[in-house]
Automatic annotation (TrEMBL):
<dbReference type="Pfam" id="PF00763">
    <property type="entry name" value="THF_DHG_CYH"/>
</dbReference>
<keyword id="KW-0521">NADP</keyword>
<keyword id="KW-0028">Amino-acid biosynthesis</keyword>
<dbReference type="InterPro" id="IPR020630">
    <property type="entry name" value="THF_DH/CycHdrlase_cat_dom"/>
</dbReference>
<keyword id="KW-0368">Histidine biosynthesis</keyword>
<protein>
    <recommendedName>
        <fullName>Bifunctional protein FolD</fullName>
        <ecNumber>1.5.1.5</ecNumber>
        <ecNumber>3.5.4.9</ecNumber>
    </recommendedName>
</protein>
<dbReference type="InterPro" id="IPR036291">
    <property type="entry name" value="NAD(P)-bd_dom_sf"/>
</dbReference>
<dbReference type="GO" id="GO:0004488">
    <property type="term" value="F:methylenetetrahydrofolate dehydrogenase (NADP+) activity"/>
</dbReference>
<keyword id="KW-0511">Multifunctional enzyme</keyword>
<dbReference type="GO" id="GO:0004477">
    <property type="term" value="F:methenyltetrahydrofolate cyclohydrolase activity"/>
</dbReference>
<comment type="function">
    <text>Catalyzes the oxidation of 5,10-methylenetetrahydrofolate to 5,10-methenyltetrahydrofolate and then the hydrolysis of 5,10-methenyltetrahydrofolate to 10-formyltetrahydrofolate.</text>
</comment>
<keyword id="KW-0486">Methionine biosynthesis</keyword>
<dbReference type="Pfam" id="PF02882">
    <property type="entry name" value="THF_DHG_CYH_C"/>
</dbReference>
<keyword id="KW-0560">Oxidoreductase</keyword>
<feature type="domain" description="Tetrahydrofolate dehydrogenase/cyclohydrolase catalytic">
    <location>
        <begin position="7"/>
        <end position="121"/>
    </location>
</feature>
<dbReference type="InterPro" id="IPR000672">
    <property type="entry name" value="THF_DH/CycHdrlase"/>
</dbReference>
<comment type="similarity">
    <text>Belongs to the tetrahydrofolate dehydrogenase/cyclohydrolase family.</text>
</comment>
Amino acid sequence: MTEKLILDGNRVADWMKEVLVERIGVLSKRGIVPCLATVLVGSNPSSATYVKMKGNACRKLGMRSIRVDLPENTTTSELIEEINKLNEDPNVHGILLQHPVPPHIDERTAFDAIRIEKDVDGVTTLGYAQNAFGIAQFPSCTPAAIMAILAYYDLEVAGKHAVVIGRSPILGKPVSAMLLNSNATVTTCHSRTANLEEIVRLGDIVVAAVGKPNFVKGSWIKQGAIVLDAGYNAGNVGDVDYKSCLLNASAITPVPAGVGPVTIATLLKHTVDAAER
């Protein structure tokens, strides 16, 4: 069997963080400490864990982390008021509103309240549009992480057929745009795509972002394809059936330790970028 390339996200993230430490050191000499503010509405335990992880990651690199915890009954206007306080704080360089918010909140309006220069998670409508044009300062972090993994391992994108399974505005759609801007031919699939298995089999690059555990089967994967699993489900399970997909793939991300660590490193990078600007 041909040797498989396991796309180690921890390795990519560690390399990114090494570079960031140097940049943070330069900023500190100017009296600037990159600062990420995270906003959590309600008490969703998974969201609380993610916010804690991001805060810890900041501190390990010598960055500041501000955490804003709001009660479950917070209104859209109250949430926007808190976001605007962070927008006006010159010591805050990046703002992350943890998804999902409680259902009574207008999440899109809240996302769009974040100033573009502090939208380090790439969630605003303007940031999405800039990403489509290939000019985003801060593209959505998970799509940017996928592109970073491909670049780190020097995997060719131009001229390849990329199949993206998922069309969310912060993952499937923006990664489709980024791949297209990198000269791939892109097919974006979703829950209503007919003949999904046959379409996935055409992919030289397959991005799984559907939010269903072990959804993509090994029989769907073309021999020699690159498989990037952007899913994370209960029990540390991705959207790809890893063992069966490994048989045909030439390169594949594991879950955990694949796209996830690079997503967090990308968020930190964007915050440092914002501080430098």
